[in-house]
Amino acid sequence: MGVEGPVVQPGHGLRDYYRGKIQELEIAIRDKHHNLHRIEAQRNELNSRVRLLREELQLLQEPGSYVGEVIKLMGKSKVLVKVNPEGKYVVDLGECGAEAQMEARVIELPLKHPELFDALGIAQPKGVLLYGPPGTGKTLLARAVAHHTDCTFIRVSGGELVQKYIGEGSRMVRELFVMAREHAPSIIFMDEVDSIGSARTDNSGGSGDSEVQRTMLELLNQLDGFEATNKIKVLMATNRIDILDPALLRPGRIDRKIEFPNPDETSRFDILKIHSRKMNLQRGIDLKKIAEGMTGSSGAELKAVCTEAGMFALRERRVHVTQEDFEMSVSKVMKKDTDKNMSIKKLWK
Q: Where does the AAA+ ATPase domain start and stop, copy by copy (predicted)?
């Protein structure tokens, strides 16, 4: 009889096979989990970057937000920032052409050619007031001046000078003019000057009104305290010239007043062309008809009409803007303006 070999259990080979497969799958699962954790970490890092970029973008899109070199601290919460103007405010002024030329003569000529005033024996103008309804291009024109003049441009809103602590607003006004002298030639642009420059009354409404009046008195003193030959010019803008104090408007402080009315039909057509030139318009768009239907509208409203027309096209997933889009946007923008700004528009009839 032959010698019998070892007996192999029929289930052992199959069991070992599946154990090996299970181990392979467990290793693959661990690798997948490791890759998943790595991808999640990368996703979280990218999400953090996106959040930071969105926050920075929101800050940059806010009005009056600029990026530049910090020149000097101004109190505890404000700084003087040097902005590189290269290409930043090269803008089409549209309806402001005549006003832009007038302001260029008043602001730029004394800074570039002071000898002309000396030869004629006349005083250089110190300041210019831009006034008119909202949205007519006053601040836009000031930005253009910042680009075209080779001097320090200091921008401040009148509301920023209204402080709750006694003496704080007047101190900020003094520091503004100190900085302007240190960095001459310079232009001080004061937007919404009616916040501090309204006419004074005998019956003060409280400590807040008294502080506003003190701030305005300091502004008047500073306007009187520097010579026009110091290469410092003051540029102010307001929607309400009717409430400004006469002491602020007298010659020697504000030498020129430039009105910014709402654009006429030709100017409205030019503004629509400026704001729609980069839009994908359907052939046959009649912008002149749109301009005719927007009597009394401002430059800001005309820009809003172009933006709304594009939004109507986006909602319908179209890649071009039609005449109907413009007509619907006119109805929307003009209705909003009628409901919101009727009281202001009455002042400029």
A: 124-264
* Average pLDDT estimate for 147-156: 76
Looking up tokens 């000031």 gives 142
Q: Are 249 and 205 in contact (CB under 8 A)?
A: no
Cis peptide before 10 (omega within 30 of 0): no
Q: Coil, helix or strand for 284? A: coil
pLDDT per residue as tens digits for the range 120-130:
887 777 788 88
96-127 burial, b at 16+ Cβ within 10 Å, e below that, comes to beebbeebbebbbebbeeeeebeeeeeebbbb
For the chain, the maximum distance between any two Cα atoms, rounded to a whole number of angstroms, is 141
- Cα-Cα-Cα-Cα dihedral of 78, 82, 87, 90, to 10°? 60
Q: Say whether pLDDT at 251 is over 50.
A: yes
CB 198 within 8 A of CB 244: yes
**For position 203, what pLDDT does the model report?**
55
User: Binning pLDDT at 50, 70 and 90, where does residue 86 land?
Assistant: very low
Residue type, 256: R
Containing 267, the helix (H) or strand (E) segment is helix 265-276
Please name the residue that has the structure tokens 């006694």: 166
Report yes or no: 244 and 199 within 8 Å, Cβ to Cβ.
yes
C-alpha span between 219 and 82 (Å, rounded): 23
Contact at 8 Å (CB) between 251 and 126?
no
Contacts of 10 (CB under 8 A, 6+ apart): none
Residue 285: pLDDT over 80: yes
Tokens of 172: 């900020």
pLDDT tens digits for range 46-74: 888 888 777 776 665 554 545 555 555 55
